Amino acid sequence: MASGDHIRHRQLGTVIHDRRLAAGHTLARLSTETGLSQSFLSQLENGRTNTSLRSLQQIADALSTTATALLAAADDTAPAAVVRAADDTVLPQTDPGAGTVRSLVHGDRDLRALEFTGGTDRGDRDFVHQGDEIIHVTRGAISLIADGTEHELGAGDTYYCRAGEKHRWWAHSPDTTTLVLAVADGRTVKRNSRK
């Protein structure tokens, strides 16, 4: 593990630890609610291991937040207008079918943007967000189920997901690339008063 990776793990672990305590959860309760072992959760909070996005989502659910909110809180990088392709913003995945997830935004911003590559088994869980989001396919194809209706999206297609709309999606192949853009939790879209 590179030195920077350890620092990033510790930051995410600290965020999870602080959110767990603020929620009044013990490690045992968080373990029960997530199905993740107390040992794993302790190692994660102490920066000795990382987590897949799937496990982070389980933790976020138990803490009444989202994985993107936890990741954003752990990102102490100064907000930057440019995020380079070479910047290490990938969240490691433990499950090969989960693909990779890369943050396209540095620091505490009003908008969140994630780039998903692959994720052929990602459709096993429904999501409901407090804000709207856009799901855009840049390469390959995905299947998306929103409020009980299935859609197939190919390269260049976009789905606008309303706040509160239950949805899930999965890639058709490991080389599929999907962008998800959303307003950060607890934020609102700032409107310019000019017409």
Compact overview of the structure:
With 195 residues, the chain is of the alpha+beta class. It has helices at residues 3-22, 27-34, 38-45, 53-62, 67-74, and strands at residues 90-91, 100-103, 111-117, 133-139, 141-146, 149-154, 158-161, 167-171, 177-183.
Describe this structure in words.
The chain is an alpha+beta fold and 195 residues long. Helix content is 28%, strand content 25%. It is built from 5 helices and 9 strands; from the N terminus they run αααααβββββββββ. The strands form 2 sheets. The protein has a 6-stranded antiparallel β-sheet, with no helix packed on it. Strands 6-5-8 form a 3-stranded antiparallel β-sheet, with no helix packed on it. β1 and β2 form a beta hairpin. α1 packs across α5. It is globular. Residues 1-7 have low confidence and may be disordered.
